[in-house]
Amino acid sequence: MDHISVMHLITRLIVGGAQENTLYTAALLDPARYKVQVISGAQTGSEGSLIEEARQQGIPLGILPELVRQISPLKDLQALIKLYRLLQREPYQVLHTHSSKAGILGRLAGHLAGTPVIIHTVHGWSFHDYMSPWLQKTYILLERWMAHYTQALVAVSQKDIDKGLQAGIGRPDQYHLIRSAIPIEQFDASLFDRGKIRQALGIPEQAVVIGFVGRFSPQKNPLDWVRVAKQVGQNQKDVFFLMVGDGPLRDQVEAQLLQAGIRDRTVLTGLRRDIPALLACMDMFMHTSLWEGVPRAIVQALCIELPVLAYSADGVQEIIQNGENGYIFQPGEVKKMAEVCEHLVQHPELRKALGQRGRERVMQEFDLQKMIAQISALYEQFVR
Q1: How far is 154 from 228, CA to CA, in rounded Å?
Q2: First to last CA, the chain
Q3: Calpha distance 100→332 (Å, rounded)
Q4: Measuring CA to CA, how many Å separate 120 from each of 158, 209, 246, 316, 325?
Q5: Coil/strand/helix, residue 37
Q6: Phi, psi of 121 (to 5 degrees)
């Protein structure tokens, strides 16, 4: 059987859900059937880099320095030309793009080069309600244009499919729902010594720990997270807070923790790759992101049997069943989230019940092997 050659194109290989999803796909597609190449821009940042990790896994990786996140007419044109030449020189059967900039430039280059199958994954749309109206309209127009050159639009949430169709992007038959999955077997609390992990972090064994995992960025909205933690911490003196990650808002987060009087009960780990172990030492998980496709951090927390409190951003509503495996709040409902959080602090049995139902939810839909099988079937369908 002949190989199917696939290029995965992504703007940046930072530590994030879209990037992890892309590398999992590249690593786990059957090598007897697929010949996979990943192309990424060179930019990383305070969020951390997955470039070396990809190389260590043996994933064929090419770096395109001209592919940058910000709008840059000269570099964008250079990246488009280089991608076009690459796609002509190496005739890939499938071009699979991820993230906004790579999705636009890549699909245009693929169309010009005559790539037979072009697929784009929407890991959350590039446009959202927290950007200026003119920029939102610009992104929507670009996505509408690129949809004409796309055989399949993969979405990680039904909400993103609905949002795309409402914006006039593509046709219903172009969309395919494939969840951004995780290696479920790694997210098992029984694999970890909770006491030792807490001891290493300087957290008392009997404390109730409320956690966060993500980038310290405006999208992930960690400042609201600290506002909730402030209210909880003032009323519940045996509660500790664990924030895993880094990003451009790190200094503001630290300043706000100091002002709230809970810095001495908050552990900021910085960038870490041992996420399952860190989740295993938490008692509940809070997520205050403003826009998302499907937040992998929430899926990971549910898998490790943590109750989740989250803002109702896009795909969050498809993971959290209110009162069953966690609680959903409207963005900005800091006081209400803090009150529910305090209730959970005081009721460990409720936390346990919510957590158990959360893992059952993830097992049904977010298994990594299921995701790989769905992507493989999609490639086969369009290559045929």
Answers
A1: 34
A2: 13
A3: 27
A4: 15, 38, 28, 21, 31
A5: strand
A6: -100, 130
